[in-house]
């Protein structure tokens, strides 16, 4: 059968980009594919962080994933730092990756100019990500478009290792959603919706109450013009709203334009569609948050399962690369 993995970095609250880019695809596929999901807390340490916030975000994101429909009887859900094989394999892969190769990663280049003290781990972050993925012999990695380059690096590292040291890793591929692989910030539609934006005005968080969703969508930046057309190049704000609506209702964005005569009409539809997506998550989250012991238990069991499956891969990699096992 097909095996899949995805990870989420607990640096803030989960948002609509995370849902449409990664969470929903993984939940939709969970009964077809053997699925692994983890909270990438080690990745959260690559930039300035507050220790208590990372911990709280980790539990909140796990709770939100369950609220979004992840079935813990079906999916292995765990916290990265509770499975030591991630860092074990990370080191072996650092010894298979070029310094220049890591430096070429776009996210590193972007973040290393805005961060005051660039951590060494920010440079090697994509290598840890490669280890996350290769650890579990997966075929598919559902992610948003911003992770494509990291997936290419993962494939390059795996292929090189296999060629140099003998067949060790399954070479996985990225799986991107057809619409909404890159949900843009509502207040600045030229940048992706993300936790690192300066304000929250353009980010719809999964736990935002209905009135906040309404306000953010209503204030979304649109483009000059009156007609509702789908043109991501010259009208990115409008196209973003159409993409979000398309993802919510399951029609292609170009098929939706005819239904709306004004931006206001379109925004009303977007508010309803987004609230329809988020309401069940919000309600279920409120229930689950009353029982953090349950969520922690899911994570404990997930980590146990993940350690078992990962140990075998690390053993293979150690043998292949020349360590005494
Ligand atoms: P992170 O935490 O930034 O994002 C989690 C997932 O959400 C997707 N995503 C988006 N999709 C569409 N539109 C957006 N605006 C948007 N913003 C985020 C991301 O593409 C991602 O799929 N490096 C990863 C975490 C990670 C990982 C892994 C993922 C660590 N190891 C192994 C897959 C496999 C990250 O920072 O994701």
From TrEMBL:
It is an enzyme of class 6 (ligase). L-tryptophan binds at residue 132. Its EC number is 6.1.1.2. ATP binds at residues 9-11, 17-18, 144-146, 183. CDD domains: TrpRS_core (cd00806). Signal peptide: none annotated. Keywords: Aminoacyl-tRNA synthetase, ATP-binding, Cytoplasm, Ligase, Nucleotide-binding, Protein biosynthesis. GO terms for molecular function: tryptophan-tRNA ligase activity. A motif ('HIGH' region) lies at residues 10-18. It catalyses: tRNA(Trp) + L-tryptophan + ATP = L-tryptophyl-tRNA(Trp) + AMP + diphosphate + H(+). It holds the Pfam family tRNA-synt_1b. It is found in: Cytoplasm. Belongs to the class-I aminoacyl-tRNA synthetase family. Catalyzes the attachment of tryptophan to tRNA(Trp). NCBIfam families: trpS. PANTHER family: TRYPTOPHAN--TRNA LIGASE, MITOCHONDRIAL. Homodimer. This is Tryptophan--tRNA ligase. The gene is trpS.
């Amino acid at each position: 059968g097909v095996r899949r993995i995805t990870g989420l970095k607990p640096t803030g609250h989960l948002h609509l980009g995370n849902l449409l880019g990664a969470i929903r695809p993984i939940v939709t596929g969970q009964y077809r594919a053997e699925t692994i999901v983890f909270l990438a807390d080690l990745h959260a340490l690559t930039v300035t962080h507050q220790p208590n916030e990372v911990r709280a975000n980790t539990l909140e994101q796990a709770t939100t994933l369950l609220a979004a429909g992840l079935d813990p009887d079906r999916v292995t859900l765990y916290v990265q730092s509770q499975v030591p094989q991630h860092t074990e394999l990370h080191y072996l892969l650092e010894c298979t990756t070029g310094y220049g190769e890591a430096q070429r990663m776009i996210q590193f280049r972007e973040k290393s100019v805005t961060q005051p003290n660039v951590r060494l781990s920010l440079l090697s972050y994509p290598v840890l990500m490669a280890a996350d993925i290769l650890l579990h012999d997966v075929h598919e990695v559902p992610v948003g478009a911003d992770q494509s380059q990291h997936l290419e690096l993962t494939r390059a590292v795996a292929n090189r290792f296999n060629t140099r040291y003998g067949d060790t890793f399954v070479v996985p591929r990225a799986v991107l959603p057809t619409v909404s692989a890159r949900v843009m910030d509502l207040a600045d539609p030229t940048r992706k919706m993300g936790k690192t934006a300066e304000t929250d005005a353009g980010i719809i968080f999964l736990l935002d109450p209905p009135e906040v969703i309404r306000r953010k969508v209503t204030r979304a930046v649109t483009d000059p013009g009156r007609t509702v057309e789908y043109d991501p190049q010259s009208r990115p704000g409008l196209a973003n709203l159409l993409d979000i609506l398309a993802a919510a209702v399951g029609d292609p964005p170009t098929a939706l334009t005819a239904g709306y005569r004004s931006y206001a009409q379109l925004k009303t539809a977007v508010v309803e569609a987004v609230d329809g997506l988020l309401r069940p998550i919000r309600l279920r989250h409120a229930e689950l948050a009353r029982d953090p012991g349950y969520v922690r238990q899911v994570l404990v069991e997930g980590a146990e399962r993940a350690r078992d499956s990962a140990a075998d891969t690390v053993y293979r990699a150690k043998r292949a690369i020349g360590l005494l096992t």
